[in-house]
Model the fold of this input.
Amino acid sequence: MNRSPVEVDNNRNNSALIVVGELKQDILNGYFQPGEKLKMARLKERYQVGVSPLREALSQLLIEQLVVVENQRGFKVHPVSREEMLDIYATRAEIEALCIGLAIEKGDDEWDAGIMAAAHKMRKFGGLVEKDPQEWERRHQAFHTSIAIGCDSPTLMQVRRSLYEKASRYRNLWLNKNMAESTVFDANQKEHESLIEALLERESINARELIREHLLSPSRALETSQGLTALDR
Amino acid sequence: MNRSPVEVDNNRNNSALIVVGELKQDILNGYFQPGEKLKMARLKERYQVGVSPLREALSQLLIEQLVVVENQRGFKVHPVSREEMLDIYATRAEIEALCIGLAIEKGDDEWDAGIMAAAHKMRKFGGLVEKDPQEWERRHQAFHTSIAIGCDSPTLMQVRRSLYEKASRYRNLWLNKNMAESTVFDANQKEHESLIEALLERESINARELIREHLLSPSRALETSQGLTALDR
DNA sequence: ATATATAAAAATGTCGACATTATTAGCTTG
DNA sequence: CAAGCTAATAATGTCGACATTTTTATATAT
Done:
């Protein structure tokens, strides 16, 4: 039997694409634990589709390294490790520094304006971090994206997005335990302001070093947190 | 009906993964033209599998941006454009420079040894480029990989591989027309020697600039070649 | 003749069914 | 009682079938 005549989604996408999004979120925010086996029966139940769209979705996440597959043994959530976490964060820091270096070379007024706008939205939400961490993370990310976008390279931005997603998986596994320590948060905010200053002044070397530090500090925090020790099992 | 009882492949992989490899090659070397519609009937015929493994394979190449999909309108080979070509090559140059910079920081004797070994295999094949361009490209790539691997970052190497594949698609579209001009080739060889020298001397800034030039020259050649003008239609 | 509407043909996306393979449970034996 | 074998149970991977949608071909009207 096919889908009901009254379609719930007006989407232009097929089921697989829809499932990709939901499944990705479920993996990133930890609904499906690292290493967990993804049984077809359960997935069918949860997303209300057959195996074909599911396998297509899983195939996509396979390339994005969020799931792994073994022949005749099905799919599993990509396992986590301290080693991989450090590698992803380190790479992410270098890529972001690269974006910023290129962006500063090409930067114009419009780029500056975009950064100021995003920074404003982020600052305005500063006090509500503990109220709605999700929304804050969105604005935080939008701020950094407004900077990186100045590199003017779709290819590089694609790489950047992929790394962000992998990293956010580790961040979420940790966030669920250690909720927003305000000391860490305040330090973060100051780093943002220094970064903006360096960008507007086109201080490339300085900005790149600032962003490296900014992106590496979470990985240092994660390394010693409860979250990751739990991941060692 | 299922596959014949006598399996042709002793592979540990499922059909989808096998098809991924073959289909990827067919796209990269231009058997399927940019923008070409990938009709299921034809793919079934060519790879001797049903639609399920095919859709899985296509879903993977979708993320790798080698194919595109439109709902109810099937899959197409990802189109090419001069713009994208330049962006991919530019990004690739930056990533390779990044790998080399990190590798020089961490480089030890083993790294040097690996480079020398790969360089030797490449030099030995120097005269046979026109005889077997495929094999030369393999050794050329192995040489560059032996350098980049020193960055010691699986994540970064993954990014690098993906970019190499996308770039090689453009290179192949061009290679089929302009076959190995020896002047270009000789210049290439000299660049390799300069690069090796800089690496062994740990001259980071110099090496990074050399690799950027080395990787950007093909894109400059492609830009004005017949190959790409044909791609503009 | 061009444009519009209609019918026919082709192609896509999804499901259920089934063969194959892995996993578990129960049983035997040293 | 542990270790190995066997039977059962469960899960995967692939195909053919079918409903839905797009594309092509044909007919009609302005």
Remarks:
- Chain B has a mean pLDDT of 88.
- Residues 82-231 of chain B form a domain with the Four Helix Bundle (Hemerythrin (Met), subunit A) fold (CATH 1.20.120.530).
